[in-house]
Each structure stands twice: as structure tokens, then as C-alpha cells.
Amino acid sequence: MLLTEIDHIAIAVRDLEAAVEYYQKAFGATIDHREVVESDGVEEVLMKVAESYIQLLTPTNPDSPVAKAIEKRGEGLHHIGYRVNNCAEALASMIAAGATPIDKAPRPGSRGTTVAFMHPKGSFGTLIELVQE
């Protein structure tokens, strides 16, 4: 089994501060990590849930994939991140199974991780992020 656990559920939002406040009030959630990921054009906040995260994402520029997703579909579920021990191995396995890669090779992600994204068209409508810590 290449998947070790759910790393995060990503939710795209227009107003990051309002979303953080909502999760704090509704669930008592606290911020575990916050980072601007320039390469993806997003600011993220990670809120710890057991060994996983709720990842709140907001675009930092109008051309980012998250900005385009919000414009097209509105706020809400953006992608699911699966934790793996070896991102390159999991990427190759998914491609061999018929998945369509967005990233042709693993690349640096937030909080020092290595990541690769798979297109929803090849993954039953779900944008998938492979995450190696």
C-alpha cells in the first residue's frame, strides 16, 4: 500500500482570515502552520486534525490555479492530499494505473514536503496531491 494516510483536505476560500475564524469558532481548531507558497500562488493555513490537516487555501494572485478554481466553481473542496513514503514511486504507480499527472516529477511543497499533483480527469474527478514528508 503506497498511501500511508490522508495528509490533508484542501478547501479553497476567498477570505482566509474569515475561514480561519470560522474553523476556530466552530471547531476550536488552531493554526498549526501558515505559509505563502509563491510557486502555487496561494497562502495556506493548516489546522491539525489528529494526524491530518484541514488546509485552507486562498489565491495570492488572479492567475493561480486556486483563483481559477474559485472563479469557475466557487469556494469549497479543492483537493485531497494523500501522504506517501515515496512521492516518485507513488507518482509512477498512479501514472501506470492510468492517472494523468499535472506534475511530471515530484517538486518541493509547503512545510518542507515533496509533492506531485494528479489531474482530476484521470482520477475519477478528484484533484489529488501526493505528499511525502
From TrEMBL:
Residues spanning the signal sequence: none
Name listed for the protein in its UniProt record: Unannotated protein
Gene3D superfamilies: 2,3-Dihydroxybiphenyl 1,2-Dioxygenase, domain 1
UniProt keyword annotation of Metal-binding present: yes
Family named by the database record: Belongs to the methylmalonyl-CoA epimerase family.
One GO MF term: metal ion binding
GO biological process: L-methylmalonyl-CoA metabolic process
All residue ranges annotated as the VOC domain in the record: 5-133
Entry-linked Pfam families: Glyoxalase_4
Key words of the record: Metal-binding
InterPro entries: Glyas_Bleomycin-R_OHBP_Dase, MeMalonyl-CoA_epimerase, MMCE/EMCE_epimerase, VOC_core
